[in-house]
Amino acid sequence: MSTQPRKRYRRYLEPGASCRVPKQTLHNQRSKKSHVLVDKGDSGGTDGRRDVLSPNAALGPGLAAESKASTSSSYDDTEGNQEEPDSVDYLYCENASESDSSSATKCASSSNDEESDNSWIETDSTASSDDEDSDSSHLSDGDMQRFFEKCSSETLPNQAITKAQALLLILTYVVHAGLSWSQVEGLLKLINTLCGCDVVPDTKYRFRKLWHDRMESLRMHYFCPTCFSYLGLRTRKKISETFTCLTCQSLYNTQQLISTGSFFLVFHLKRLLYECIARHAGRIYDGLKKAQSTVYGVYSDITSGRMYKSIRRRLNMKWSDITVTLNSDGSPVFESSKSSVWPIQLFVNELPFNIRFQEVLVGALWFGKRHPPAHLFLKTFVEAFNGIGRIRWHHAGTRISSRVYAVCCCVDSPARAGILNMKQFNGYFGCSWCLIKGTVVDGVLRYLPGTSPAGTRTHRNVVEDMYNAFQRGEPVHGIKGPSPLLQLNGFNLVWCMPPDVMHCVLEGVTRQLTESWLSATGAEYYIGRHIRHIDGLIVKMKPPITFCRFPRPLSDHAHWKATEWLYWLLFYSLPSLKEFLHTVYLNHFSILCQAIYLLMQPVVTDTDLEEASSLLTSFVSKVHTLYGPSGATFNVHQLLHLTKSVEMLGPLWGTSTFPFENGNGQLLRLVKAAQGVPLQIAERCTMKSWLRTASKLVELSPMLESRKNRIMNMQLVVHSKVQVLGAPLLSYQLEGSVEQLFVERYGTLPCMTHYARLVLNDMRIHTTSYTRATKTYSSCVRMNNGKYCLVIDICSILLDTRKIVLVCQDLVTVECGFRFVRYMHRCHIPPPGRSLSLHTQEDVSAQCVFLELGDTFYVCDVPSTYRID
Description:
The protein is α+β, with helices and mostly antiparallel strands. Helices cover 37% and strands 16% of the residues. It folds into five domains: 20-213, no CATH class; 219-266; 267-411 and 659-685, no CATH class; 501-655, no CATH class; 722-861, SH3 type barrels, CATH 2.30.30. Residues 1-140 are annotated as: Disordered. It comes from Ornithodoros erraticus.
């Protein structure tokens, strides 16, 4: 027998005991207390163990107050070495070693690194009973600010870094490194061990309580898993609720619905938008003022489109009212499962495009094996969106009140049909912009060009068709019934849902034609026999360093991303196919290249629209002749509506799904385990939002700010429009002809420093002598006078002020040889030392793509100044 003394239990009851109360004991005691209060109606009674068992006993038995106090004082509990108050708030988070058999069932779903915690979903009666519809308190960060003010007054042992700064840096690392909760807890314990005291919350439960209040504002909606009827909204007044489906009369409790995943989440939309506006108040203010200016016939963004201006005018919107673009698309989470996550994402249109595409907000979340029914998921989101009300914010001492309107919903074709409650593109009348019926060819619906153009759809006609379809119980012009988007104020059901360039053009028509060239053995346009030669040409091409992907062989096209199809369409295809694809088909494809380039420019004019419309009409009409009826797909038909889309909502890059697809990818990276996927994503998004707010409240020194940027993988922070990179080139010697150019321009040879790299207005320019970048070529630029140049040297000269001067070699350009393309030119490089010129930083207009194919060189203009990828 063992000689070890028997373990003593309940040591926390002994006088002066310093050990902690087990979490399950705390939970049981509070549960018993809540039952006593409910049964006896006694609001003031306590038992003899209240002071020992509950660290919040001083607050009294008030249930709402107790829950709020346990959240707001989580950091104080850590500092005071008190018992952990998280057993109630995190009902499903207990470790198996600390739980009895009764809690084992509750922990069954918390496997896989405990990422599937449903801890915030339901609590006992200590939860707050505040009205969920009241959101004014949720928008205030007063408690959070007071928390950081207290932490800012305390420093780490023997250091000048405050606890608030340390907590901010730790949270930054946790968010951007994507640590699991077990790793987070290990990190917290390690930091406290190295510091010799508790400087941060010592468990993941206390750490997660920092943003617990924000998780409370998350709305969980239940639905019937049998008939997908809406059941109701989660309430926090009871541990378990019962719902009866009014359609199939099935009875469910909340535990069943959660375990089967029969719920979806809607985020606090008002808070999301309020925080986004607060982060970029100045930029949004400028964007709202800019949207007031009207320049007809010029389309530079969604705010310059005719539909955008029409909605503002028709609804009599104030200048301060903001608009958003919506998106919904599914992404599979696991390779071994059919389950997908379907977020509804949005961004604010009045933000500058480079900021807008980075500020994609998640408004709602669906997870399951089937597509979310629009009458259930989208309808609930629309109701929440309509309930946002006014958002009040400040800028430069001015108080501004804004309402929020949806003016665009950019999705792919299947999602568009589901949202509009109409037939898919493979059914009659499957186009949402016109009334073309379609023709069945070999059992497949094709969109063959007709003798007369099909009638166009209007918002009024679509609403009438929805009403008639609902009355008759059958589709009318492809419309099956009402759409949830009817409830969005001012939303046009035709042109507020534009074609998407990513799915329609890049992964649609471009991929379709490329695969035809490679697979149609025996056809006049077959190039499969030359695939090795084409691969050799493509992999040798060197794009600018701003391109996010290097060229991959054409034989690997099945794995290309949409960005690679964009590069293939505009830059790589024509030069590499010139010697292999029949001229008729190459010229036909060049029509598409030029049209898409025109519609993706930073600024599109009415003249560009007329030219693009003519080109696309010609391209579509010839597809049937060149490739047969099988080539007349819906994606090809959509090309006819692209120019109208640009007229209504601005250039194609402004209404593409690129930023939303990137948002989907970021959401998938938040999943750390197989259980509780939507809850994992929701909490990680909430944690990121909390971090953004905390970053504004905690002031960091320049050194700590630099460390924070390094943690966030921000490798380059440019504080001005022009900045040289790297160390000066000490051994650089100017040629005599270059010295003469400086003397002719400035009257003397100024003092100068030479560099090999430069950042200029978001362009990263390298000199031709820079050799470290072996797979990219970033030396070609276009000047304001239209000349194309190679940057030979980057000089920082000192005259009255310091300025940047580029020593360039002018290229000799001629027509590219592709019949319809004007943004691409063949060029010749003069001999060394010839055709040199000096240009200041103000002379540079844009960076260009420089391609080398043997002895032939091409220079290509890039359509958009911002990478949509």
